[in-house]
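Predict the assembly for these three chains.
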Amino acid sequence: MADNVLALRGLSRAFGALKATDDVSLTLRRGEIHALIGPNGAGKSTLMALVSGKLAPDAGQIWLEGRDITGLSVAARARAGLGRSFQVSSLIPEYSALRNVMLALQARMGHSYRFLRPVMRDQALISGARAILARVGLGPRASVEAAVLSHGERRLLEIAMALALSPKCFLLDEPMAGLGAEGTKQLVTFLHGLKQDAPILLIEHDMDAVFQLADRISVLVYGRIIATGSAAEIRANPQVRAVYLGTEDSL
Amino acid sequence: MDSTRKEWLLNALIAGALFAVPLWACVVNEPFIITLATRIAILAIAAVGLNIALGLGGMVSFGHALYLGLGGYVAGIAAHHAFHGTEILGLPGTNQMLPIWALATVLSGLVAGVVGALSLRTSGIFFIMITLAFAQMGFFFTLSWPAYGGEDGLPIFVRNQFPGLNTARPWEMFLLAYAVLMLCLAAFAGLRAARFGAALMAIRQNPDRAAALGISPFGIKLVAFVLSGMITGLAGAMMADLTRFVSPAMMAWTVSGELIVIIILGGVGRLFGPVAGAAILVGFEVFFGGLTEHWKLWLGLVLLAVVLFARGGFIGLLAGRVRHGG
Amino acid sequence: MTLALVLEQLLNGVQFGLMLFLMSAGLTLVFGVMGLINLAHGSLYMIGAFLCAAVAAASGNFWLGLVAGIAAAAAAGALIEILVIRRLYARDHLDQVLATFALILILSEGVRMVFGPFPLYLNVPEALRGTVSLGIVEYSVYRLALIGFGLAVALGLWALIAKTRLGIRIRAGESDREMIAALGVNIRALYTIVFALGAGLAGLAGALVGAIQSVQVGMGEPVLILAFVVIVIGGIGSIRGAMVGALLVGVIDTMGRFLLPRFFATFMETSQAMGVGAALASMLIYLLMALVLIFRPKGLFPAHG
């Protein structure tokens, strides 16, 4: 079990009578991409909120590298090493791409209570952020305000900010959402390399991308995980086929 | 010319004008105008304080009159005991501005810490009402506490002193206020450019994102709120010395409203927004107040027009919007 | 200190609370349905009082004045909503605060221009003068009538919201704005009606209270701020919360002012006890609010979730 970076154990959360997350256990191992798929309403968003700390579970624990982080706030989990991207791009709209990444770097260093030195003269912060922007291919767009970046660029900036945290694991919530075929292809290549930095828990709707990328796939239906396995195993699983039959032709 | 350079030029012009006008008044011996400029400078200091919470942090405090009044009462009570040679809590009074300012800032910071810790548990409309309510609590307390004049307020018979200056002279009092204003503006600019400012402004724009990066919004906002209250408290002590009078009216809810109005008229979050706003408000009062007793009606109409149609305030109108580029 | 005196103060507290409820109900309704913070609510209270006093003085009939006060406040509310407030629903709270702060300046100065700088006085109607015996206490008939009025209006408001078509729409508006638009309800008209209704309630409160206080510019804002305390305690958007909050604030404030100085006088010198007691009493309701916030940050009866 030493290889588990992130482990969910018996996670449950109900809204009234609706069990949005029902006894979910899964692990994320070093160097892998573990994709979470499921039809609409399966409880992916709730599970994401539980892991990121936006919601508190009714039962179960979340472990990050041997540390129980179940009781931590969103910010404390981020500091503990959880780097997430949002399903709908969530950036600092008035900041340039560069300053968005600089903010993430500053947060990782844990020095937000410094009152004197101007950030725009902090060469370590600036060059660090530029390197990360270059890595995701946003180098030339560094001085553009986040609010006016294109949709695809905003998705990339999301990932750049997660990357700047040097997290222990990535939590990517539908990073391909709204990207064209070309953009998706580039991102697939990028994520393939990214898992060497830290393993990725990937929630994604684009089945082609998931089956190309994921080392393991878990299928969530009505808040429960009905199957976990390699792409081939999931493809062959009769239960999964039954759930997706007629809804996802790609399977 | 890009908007950042335009703003710096405009700032230099405003700073120059605020110095040149009373200097001219000093030469032609018009003490009324010097005192008016001093009032603008001190109001601007108070608004620089609020601008940290409101402009950078997006916290709509409708209760900053509390800190203004606290600072004012520190100056008034210290001078009162010094004048009568009596003690308060075992300590003598003082007529020295420096210890008074220190106490006013620290006390305002402590109170802002308590009010902020309670109010920041909520947000939006709750936050506005709660900060207002706490300021009202201070207002009614000073109104009904009889020891320091209650409703009638407390006069400061002799203006408190500053080493090396004769504060009784309008020009020297102005210089003092102007210097403190410039220091506060420098502190504001430094804070805004530093990591703390980067975090604070990010939280205003997108608190969920900041939290997901590991920056806890509560702590950053609370520190900003405390700093904000401290600067406004300092302005309160100076204001009491300028008018040589402190009364519950300094804590009235309308004063909190006026501080917000100053920031809006000048430009939210802009470095010189409070200075421009204070000058506009005081100028409006003096100019239209001389023409009609109903000048507040016109102020209301202007304010309404600014809110509905000219969001950037004075600085925004002339220098365009803020850029956080690089 | 006699039981009769305590009972009298208790009744005063209830009466005060019910008048606060009339103010708070409109505020909380406007916030619940439109998401708007309206500082100018106190100005509508003032308009109700001024019109009532002026019409009552001119006609010699309090009741005619009362109707005029309510109508004027409601009409002013509808007008303000159409001219200004409507543009603020989509804006942030800061804009709402500033625009309605501007409205206070305009309305206060406008009333001063029309009615002059001096306070008006409104007499208690003939039929409600004097006192009535309630067993151990002689109590003001008018104040008792205010209690009756307040309860009747509260009941009417409850019936309006629970039983009528308008009420159904208001409740739908509180839970889901897009939903009622989708159902084809004319939102613009609904918002104007809700705002005018709240304004009318504020005008009613102003007119009723005007007979026991002087009617002057600036009378609305202290009540407005107390109404804020009420709805923070009760839970913003909740009529039931406004009722509970208003009664709590009314009774605690009145009893605090009555009891605290007497309490301190038991172990302090009298004039000093009066000062300390009065100062503490003036802070009581804010302390109550702070306590509620610590334990129930969304108020006693949170309206949403």
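Chain C touches chain B through 42 residues (CB under 8 Å). Chain C has a mean pLDDT of 88.
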